[in-house]
Amino acid sequence: DAGVIQSPRHEVTEMGQEVTLRCKPISGHNSLFWYRQTMMRGLELLIYFNNNVPIDDSGMPEDRFSAKMPNASFSTLKIQPSEPRDSAVYFCASSPFGSSVFNEQFFGPGTRLTVL
Amino acid sequence: KQEVTQIPAALSVPEGENLVLNCSFTDSAIYNLQWFRQDPGKGLTSLLLIQSSQREQTSGRLNASLDKSSGRSTLYIAASQPGDSATYLCAVPTQGGSEKLVFGKGTKLTVNP
Questions:
Q1: Substitution target from A38, A45, A49 for chain B, most B beta carbons within 10 A
Q2: Of B53, B89, B94, B108, whose CA is between 20 and 30 Å from B5?
Q3: CB B91 within 8 A of CB B104
Q4: Cis status, amide bond into B40, omega within 30 of 0
């Protein structure tokens, strides 16, 4: 199993530019999560999907952030326009069972975003 | 609101020592608790998921315990090795079996050869 795949691994962009992060979950997993990790705030959930449907986006910081999951094997997180305070590591994770005592989450390697 | 605290924030031990990492949470109505490992510049690796019906879960030299009533979990690492050096995070659902997890800030472990 290839695990959760994220691309790009590193992204450096200038303020105001659009940034798109990509994620391929583990095949057969029903849920997908987008997290952001910073030194100050730790790991925070931005949004998660269940069976491709967004369930909770209360963690999305602003309207500049949007996420889609057009099919079971692909999701994107878009920031438009980007700002320096968006600099962080963005993780995608997937889980096989949905809301369950067995809902172990598996993380991708992350995308390190730097907005200049 | 669920909050997770991990103490200490950092720990340095000599190789071979047994050690315990602590995690506490405020809302004990959870279905499970998960321990992760994060190496510098890397993603999180799931170590153990312990269900609320279990008191312990073991994997190799790792043993996680869960005491829901007191809102605590411990991760015991036996015979520590330099390769165990990493940040260890615990996470619990916001409530019940919710898919939304709340993470602690982690304990950064350094095992010195």
A1: A45
A2: B53
A3: yes
A4: no
